[in-house]
Amino acid sequence: MEKLVLIGFGTVGQGFLELLVQKKKFLKENFGLDYKLVAVCDSLKGSVLNNNGLDMEKVLKWVKAGKNLNNFPDGKNGLNALETIEKANGTVMFEATYTDIKKAEPATTHIKNALDKGMDVVTTNKGPIALYYKELSELAKRKKKILRFEGTVMAGTPVFSLLQNGMAGCEIKEIKGILNGTTNFILTKMEEGLSYEEALKIAQDLGYAEAVPDADVLGWDALAKVCILANVVFGARVKPDPKKLECIGITEIKKEDIFKAKEEGKRYKLIGKVWKEKGKVKVKVSPELLELSDPLSSVMGSTNALSFINDALNSVTIVGPGAGRKETGYAMLNDFILIHKNRR
Predict the structure, then answer these.
(1) Are 303 and 181 spatial neighbours (Cβ–Cβ below 8 Å)?
(2) pTM score
(3) Can 225 be counted among the known catalytic residues?
(4) Rounded distance, CA 227 to CA 33, Å?
C-alpha cells in the first residue's frame, strides 16, 4: 500500500488528486497500484495529516468549497510542510509548490527532507531540478530512493520517460523545441494579424500569461526548462541565469516581421536549444525563423514540442501540451506508476 504525501495543493496538486480518485480502480487492476492519501499541506490552503488515510474525495470537495484544510476533520491540522513530511508515514512525497527559479525554495528543502525521511519523491517544480539536480539525484541515490520530475518540462507530455525508455541506446546530440506555450500562442495570434500587444492581452485574458508576463515573453521559463534538459540529459551543471546565458524573448518581434517571414515561407518560433559543441554543453533560448518543412514550425497555439537529434533515429519530435491542471497532474501520476513498477 503506497502512502501519499502532497506538499502544495494548488492547481497541479488538485489535478493530480482528481486523477487518483478517478483512476483508483483502473490503477489497481492494471498496475496492482493501491494507495491512500495520508497528508496534504499547502501554505495557503492549510494542512491535514492522518497516517491511517484521508478521504480523497472529501479533501477535494473541502478545498473546492473554499474551506481551509486547517479546519478539516479526521486528522491533525495546522502543520507546516516540514512538520508534515516529518510526521507522515508516507512512501512517496509529491512536491507541487510554487516555482522559485532563483532560489528553488522551499521546494528543494522539502525534497531533501523527504528523501532523508525515506520517501521517494515526485516533483513538478522546475526550480530544484534546474538549480540542484546533481545534488538531489546524488542524495536520492545515497538513500536508495527515486526522484522523478516528468512534469518540469512539457507537463504531462513524456519527455524523460521517452528518453529513458523509448529512446534508450540513442546518443542524444541536440534537443531543441518550443517549451513555452504562452509565447507560441502569442506568435500564432500575431500570424493571424494581431499586434504583439493585442496577442499578449488575449493570452492574459485566457490565463496563459500573467499580469507581469516577463517569465514567458522574455524567455526565462523556456531557459529554465532548457537548463533542466542540459543537466539531466547531458550531465551539465548550468543554472538558468538569463544574464549569463543567451536568452532572448519575443518582445521585439513585430507584426511586420511575422508577415515578412510568411511571405518567405518561414515562421518565427521561440526555440530553446541544448547541444554539445567541442565537448561543452551549450544552451540557448531565442526566436528562430524556421522553414515550414521543419516539424516544429507547424506547432501552433499553446502547444509545446521537442525534437531530439540523435545518432540512431536521426530526429524524433514529440508534440503535446506543455501546461495545464490535468496535464501536469498526469505527469505526477506517470511518475508515480513508474516508481511503483520499479519496486516490483
Answers:
(1) yes
(2) 0.94
(3) yes
(4) 33
